[in-house]
Inverse folding.
């Protein structure tokens, strides 16, 4: 953090340093809040995207989906519930698994985006004015 503060506030005259420090802290906090909000939004959108794509793939392989539901219904059959409840529980399990995988892919996408942005910022560091 110290190099960032030094690069940012290094060229500011002493009489204006308090104001510049306040503006720097405000900007840093505001940037963090906006970044967190954007990451949350990206995570939500990418989760919906991946969940939707998995749903489309499930339609193209109905025999696999039916096999999963019938096998998991056998697992739920041990609890002594009726067939409708078993199928509903199996479908819910499939949906939960799909959501977990979609969220995992969304976190991966978001991490990749943040990594790219940090790499670009890293490349811009030498261009910063290093006035003392």
């Amino acid at each position: 953090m110290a190099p960032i503060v030094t690069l940012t506030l290094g060229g500011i005259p002493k009489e204006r340093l308090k104001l510049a420090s306040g503006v720097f802290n405000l900007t840093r906090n505001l940037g963090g809040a906006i970044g967190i909000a954007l990451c949350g939004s990206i995570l939500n959108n990418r989760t919906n995207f991946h969940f939707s794509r998995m749903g489309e793939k499930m339609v193209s392989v109905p025999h696999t989906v039916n096999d999963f539901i019938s096998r998991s219904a056998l697992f739920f059959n041990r609890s002594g519930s009726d067939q409708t409840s078993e199928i509903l529980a199996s479908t819910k399990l499939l949906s939960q698994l799909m959501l977990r995988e979609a969220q995992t892919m969304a976190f991966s996408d978001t991490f990749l985006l943040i990594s790219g942005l940090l790499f670009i910022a890293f490349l811009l560091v030498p261009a910063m004015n290093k006035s003392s």
Summary: The chain has a mean pLDDT of 89. Helices lie at 2-9, 17-60, 62-77, 83-124. Residues 19-127 form one domain.
